[in-house]
Specification:
By secondary structure, the chain is α+β, with helices and mostly antiparallel strands. It has helices at about 1-20, 95-100, 105-125, 125-130, 135-150, 170-210, 210-230, 240-250; strands spanning about 20-25, 30-35, 40, 45-50, 55-60, 65-75, 80-95, 155-165. Among the domains are: about 20-60, no CATH class; about 65-165, Band 7 domain (Tetrahydropterin Synthase, Chain A, 2-Layer Sandwich); about 170-195. Helix 3 packs antiparallel against helix 5 and helix 6 packs across helix 7 (about 210-230). About 10% of the residues are buried. One of its GO terms (molecular function) is peptidase activity.
């Protein structure tokens, strides 16, 4: 009877020890085993892994892509414009051992590097680059963050600038500039249209002048269009031949010499004889 009690106690202790030594590592994790504070060779993969109770310590590392928002940073661009820029960094752990041993908290370290790199990018760039050339700035920011991240076993997936906030005075100035640019383009388009229209009208006038019947056909077409409208306009056709006759007669100059005005005779007073 005592034997069975001892055997049952040993089985219970064995089961308890087995439960304490068994660990489960998920599919997206890797496990690092420290024995008496020293990292053991090899990384434990997903599944069930066994530890020595009271001796081994398991450290799990997540291998999923981490989304790290970078708080908005204030800075002055190279052309002396105050802006406020925020970004987001996507990264994942490539080497679990480096991420645990080389840095105390790799998430906090990545955040600090991203903030300082973002402020550096703001100071090296102009406002137009921040607004219209973000792809190149994203690549430059990624290179700046990637250099220290490699020592921590971190792989940078991508870095993106989210928003660029401008002062209200700068927004109003840019709005006026954009409006002036739109007005300039509208005037250029209008002037170009008028130039093309004048060329077409000049060609049409030359064609009508070379073709005698074209002007009469155009006159008849205009009369038909006016008559089709419901209005009280009265159209009186005027013969084109009469216009040409009047034009020819006005071009012929008949010089008429004006007679010179005759000056009135001067009245001279005769001297009186003395009595």
């Amino acid at each position: 009877m005592v034997f069975f009690e001892i055997l049952g106690g040993l089985v219970a202790l064995g089961g308890l020890g087995l439960a304490m030594s068994a660990r489960v590592i998920k599919q997206f994790e890797q496990g690092l085993v420290f024995r008496f504070g020293k990292l053991q060779q090899g990384v434990r993969g997903p599944g069930l892994t066994m530890l020595v109770p009271g001796v081994d310590q398991l450290r799990k590392v997540n291998l999923q892509i981490v989304t790290l928002p970078v708080p908005a940073q204030d800075g002055i661009t190279r052309d002396n414009v105050t802006v406020r820029v925020d970004a987001v960094v996507y990264f994942k752990v490539q080497d679990a051992a480096k991420a645990v041993i080389n840095v105390e908290d790799y998430r906090f370290a990545m955040l600090q590097v991203a903030q300082t790199s973002l402020r550096s990018i703001i100071g090296k760039s102009e406002l137009d680059d921040l607004l219209s050339n973000r792809e190149r700035l994203n690549q430059g920011l990624e290179l700046m963050i990637d250099t220290p991240a490699l020592e921590w076993g971190i792989d940078i997936d991508r870095v993106e600038i989210k928003d660029v906030a401008l002062p209200e005075s700068m927004k109003r100035s840019m709005s006026r500039q954009a409006e002036a640019e739109r007005e300039r383009r509208a005037r250029i388009i209008t002037a170009d249209g008028e130039l093309q229209a004048s060329k077409k009208l000049s060609e049409a006038a030359g064609t009508m002048e070379s073709t005698p019947g074209a002007l009469q056909l155009r006159l008849l077409q205009t009369i038909v269009e006016v008559a089709a409208e419901k209005n009280s306009t009265l159209v009186l056709p005027f013969p084109v031949e009469l216009l040409r006759f009047l034009e020819k007669n006005t071009n012929v100059e008949s010089p008429v010499k004006a007679e010179a005005p005759v000056a009135p005779p001067e009245l001279t007073e005769e001297p009186k004889e003395p009595a």
